[in-house]
Amino acid sequence: MPELQAKLLEMRTPQATKTAVLVIGGAEDKVHGREILRTFFARAGANDAHIAIIPSASREPSIIGGRYIRIFEDMGAKKVELLDIREREQCEYRDYQQSLEACTGVFLTGGDQLRLCGVLSDTPAMDIIRQRVRSGELTLAGTSAGAAVMGHHMIAGGGSGESPNRSLVDMATGLGFIPEVIVDQHFNNRNRMGRLMSAIASHPDRLGIGIDEDTCALFERDGWLQVLGKGSVTIIDPTEVTHTNEPHVGATEPLNLHNLRLHILSHGDRFHLYQRTVLPAVYRISN
């Protein structure tokens, strides 16, 4: 009977689609196995990949962008471009728009998520990326700040290591590629569980996704999330929460959340964004 159940689970697991959205918790391996970056490279077309690097979040965009260019060129990408967009007006440039219309992969670097949103949100460049991701023409990846912007509601900053409370998290509007989620990165590395729980208490219609360093939540177009890398992905699911005091307490008072569901996923585990179904790695179908 357990064997039959395992087979049924395996049969229900959709085959991986080609394009995907890779949400990376920061500090991904850039030197040794480069598993996460190689997965992005493969999903963007491997040797046929045309990759656009957008380092707008960084204080040193040329330096950080140049590093990723060398990495993907070393992997054998057909073309790698740096779109050094520092001002909103540059999103109107036809050269940049043509690159975004032609590329097979876009990589958003780390830095400051508010800076990244300030430059890209509600621009023609952003419209092109969003439309092509939605239609399955483009693989998108974001690391650190580039991961934080993936939801509609975005963690812009805050504290760590405290009990959940409203003052622990600063919220802003993200880029909304995966509007159902609120992402936090460098998650267990910087003790951000309380921060993400505080965000979910304020937005109980969203799913919290906490991603460790050198770890990736890879979102397929069919709704499945798969974990890659060395750390864990924490899922905070408020679907069945029966009570929270969030609307009624002061900013620094502790929050309560009753009947909150928590999943800790590691390499190979899967989670369905809409069905809220978990599949352990043993049932994973190889891509």
Helix and strand content put the structural class at alpha/beta
How is the largest sheet built, in terms of strand order? 3-2-4-5-1-10-11-16-17
| Rounded mean pLDDT score | 94
Q: Please count the beta strands (DSSP E, at least 2 residues each).
A: 17
| N- to C-terminal distance | 27 Å
**Strand portion:** 25-35%
The domain tally reads 1
CATH topology, which one?
Rossmann fold
Task: Please provide a written account of the structure.
There is one protein chain. The protein is of the alpha/beta class and 287 residues long. The protein has one domain: Rossmann fold, CATH 3.40.50. The protein has eight helices and 17 strands. It has helices spanning 2-12, 35-43, 61-75, 94-102, 113-120, 124-134, 145-148, 193-202, and strands spanning 20-24, 50-54, 79-82, 105-108, 139-143, 153-158, 169-173, 181-185, 207-211, 215-220, 224-229, 233-237, 243-244, 257-258, 261-265, 270-272, 278-279. The strands form four sheets. A nine-stranded mixed β-sheet has the order 3-2-4-5-1-10-11-16-17, with helices on both faces. A four-stranded mixed β-sheet has the order 8-9-12-15. Helix 8 links the parallel strand 8 (181-185) and strand 9. It is globular and about 50 Å long.
